[in-house]
Predict the 3D structure of the following.
Amino acid sequence: MKSLLMHSPVAIAFGWIWAYIFITLLPLLILLIYPPLSGRGFWIDFSVALGFIALAMMALQFALTARINRIEASYGVDIILQFHRYISLVAFTFVLIHPLILFVVQPETLQLLNIFTAPWRAKMAVSATLALIALVVTTVWRQQLNIPYEPWRTAHGVLAVLTVGLGLGHAIGVGNYLGLFWKAVLWTAIALVALWLLVYVRLVKPWLMLKKPYLVEEVRPERGDVWTLALRPRGHKGFQFQPGQFAWITLEISPFRMREHPFSMSSNGDNLEKIEFSIKALGDFTKTIKDVPPGTKAFLDGPYGVFTTDRYEDTAGFVLIAGGIGITPMISMLTTHAERKDERPYLLIYASKTWEDITFREELDELKEKLDLNVVHVLREPPEDWPGETGYVDKELLQRYIPKRRATRQYFICASPKMMDQVEIALHQLEVPPMNIHMEHFNLV
Ligand SMILES: Cc1cc2nc3c(=O)[nH]c(=O)nc-3n(C[C@H](O)[C@H](O)[C@H](O)COP(=O)(O)OP(=O)(O)OC[C@H]3O[C@@H](n4cnc5c(N)ncnc54)[C@H](O)[C@@H]3O)c2cc1C
């Protein structure tokens, strides 16, 4: 019983949080056990503590973005990336407060800002802070600054390495607090792990992907300017996935180039021989999918994500709410469960622009024959004689269809950010338990 509790997903999720807090506070713990001999007073020690915590937090950012399956399986990529974003702002604040305290308590330290006369340790601190400011500004205002995703991602990696590397150099340079053996061991270990994660993400993982290529079998047009890319594993068994999960795809070019895009699988998760992605032509990369010739090499990094009905084996039924291309994880869930001959009820509320635009319209009709499935189409621009639902998916519409005993279902939402927010609020108002609501955001960054 005890070991079952220890291995439950909730216990594991809490375990990671404790591990995070422990590693972040470890430098302070060692500082408390072996206090520096300087006796420089509370405020200086406090400022140093903030610096150490910020450095540990920034080193841990490499772990948060390394797509480590075990961590990711506890929360889902979007939650981890949210955390990565918010915690970086906390670390950023600590980094700024760290020298400010010094400047107030010991105004003579302001001289350290003069990069011509300052010692190396101070030059490193200033450069690390500048790299961090550039990192935060280009990330928070990426869209406003019109920075395309791929150059941004490369710059993000370079700036992150610079920030942590220079920060560490600064800490070692100051030495006063790192002189002790255990402190030096700790920071060397943190630096080595961060370095390993970088090597793993940029070299080891792409190398593993290179050994398991896929070939494009066909590119099929679907309704709504969507193209289905069907891939077959070449020389290996492929992978099984839980319907609703996603993978990062690299097409044609080597996986060492960082040109990968995340897409939900739209096919049956239990079929290892063929894996399909349905992609809406929206931007630079997605508009090229229709022209990808059969035989093109593809590389996959996945599966990822916790947006899947498979995590809720004991639930009595499901409510799926999709808008536009948000249908892809849902069609995978429905197809997989139809093949598994699942007898539970499924309700799909599906918002599209027009009747002609409805991606997988015919496939959904076929699925109704195999599953206990009720599909409610909601059209924004309906034809004149349309007898069905129109407009937006709001509280009133949801109330008409979702079961009275709300807690008997799990609710999955995937749509535009605006629709997802509105549907989530409406479900809360309808007293759907928050733990039963699951969302997949297609706009990670
Ligand atoms: C978990 C998840 C599942 C998804 N599933 C699907 C799906 O099944 N079908 C589908 O059509 N779309 C899906 N998307 C969205 C898809 O990844 C983006 O539309 C696509 O990467 C945009 O690339 P682009 O170059 O065509 O667009 P652009 O117009 O160049 O970029 C538009 C925006 O997309 C984002 N983006 C661009 N490149 C990347 C990248 N390499 N990685 C991450 N984000 C990027 C950026 O925010 C960018 O501002 C999914 C996204 C996520 C996060």
